[in-house]
Specification:
Elements lengths: L1 H10 L8 E8 L2 E9 L2 E3 L8 E10 L1 E4 L4 E5 L4 E5 L7 E3 L4 E10 H6 L12 H8 L6 E3 L3 H8 L9 H18 L11 E2 H16 L7 H8 L3 H12 L3 H19 L4 H7 L5 H12 L3 H5 L1
Antiparallel strand pairs: 1-2, 2-9, 3-8, 4-7, 4-9, 5-6, 5-8, 6-11, 7-10
Length: about 300
């Protein structure tokens, strides 16, 4: 177990500023880590550990992996993924929202097979079983959460300190039992994209947020970036968690609030700078976002 904990700590030595990880041994060969990240992107710099299963759960924000095999996938709140640590050894991790909070359960698959927690003995839940079900040929399984998984994952948080470890042990076992019977299908699997497609979406995002004064249509973006409109909309939501319209509106309102606070520009000028040709429409959108009109906010 010492080797597993050392490997985990080594993997997260280069965490960005204002980021943190808290690691706890749950059972021999099983560790739980609470992870908070504040950055845009950083490399997954860890050892090629094909015998260690990593279960990632996204609590807040969004996280994505651009894998070495040219594929990419993203988790949003409630989503979770399973892969062995050799799968993402050369990946780049990105946080579209600039922040992320979640947990990771690390499991030494060899130890789970040879020395499982007593309650799992005879259940057939072994390292080989989990590897074959979720990580065959170093694959990466990412799944949309449901009521059952959300109930288990959220219970890792907020427990009284004196009951924390016993509660976490129970929930790890409950999760493994749930995973053993879980049916993986196209219905609950998250979509995996090509890294090149994700890069295109990020370029579109950069264009939109740096030109808030302009209004871009889906059709125009599709033609400019040679991407089907339906695919563009689906991929944008997969990466950033909301529709293009909702996401850019949020950026417009944040920029408007900043200009109201930090400049002497008129409300009409600010309205135009964030893409509104009608001051009344801008005022209505601003009130919806901040609960008061621009003039009152500035005061």
């Amino acid at each position: 177990m010492k080797d597993l904990l050392q490997s985990i700590r080594k993997a997260f030595l280069s965490l960005p500023r204002q980021s943190s990880i808290e690691i706890t041994e749950i059972y021999p060969g099983i560790a739980l880590a609470f992870l908070t990240l504040k950055t845009d992107t950083f490399p997954a710099a860890h050892e090629d550990l094909g015998h260690v299963l990593q279960i990632n759960y996204c609590r807040r924000g969004r996280i994505g992996w651009n894998m070495g095999n040219k594929s990419a996938l993203y988790l949003g709140p409630g989503d979770f993924s399973l892969h062995t640590m050799d799968t993402c050894v050369s990946s780049a991790i990105s946080l579209p929202a600039g922040s992320y909070e979640g947990l990771i359960i690390f499991t030494d698959l060899d130890m789970l097979t040879n020395h499982p927690p007593d309650i799992l003995s005879g259940t057939g839940i072994t390292g080989e079983f989990l590897r074959d079900k979720f990580c065959r040929d170093s694959s990466f399984t990412s799944l949309a959460g449901d009521e059952q998984t959300e109930r288990i994952f959220t219970a890792f948080y907020g427990q009284p300190e004196q009951f924390g470890l016993p509660w976490q042990r129970i929930k790890v076992l409950e999760l493994l039992l749930l995973l053993a019977g879980l049916k993986v299908s196209a219905k609950n699997k998250l979509t995996e994209y090509q890294s090149e497609q994700i890069e295109t979406i990020r370029n579109i995002h950069e264009l939109l947020v740096t030109h808030l004064e302009q209004r871009f249509t889906i059709e125009a973006l599709s033609k400019q970036y040679l991407m089907n409109p339906t695919t563009l909309k689906a991929m944008f939501k997969s990466v950033y968690g909301t529709s293009i319209a909702a996401h850019i509106k949020e950026h417009r309102m944040e920029q408007a609030a900043k200009l109201l606070r930090e400049t002497d520009l008129s409300i009409a000028e600010i309205s135009g700078l964030v893409g509104y040709d009608s001051q009344s429409r801008f005022a209505s959108a601003f009130k919806e976002a901040f609960g008061q009109l621009p003039k009152a906010y500035r005061k």
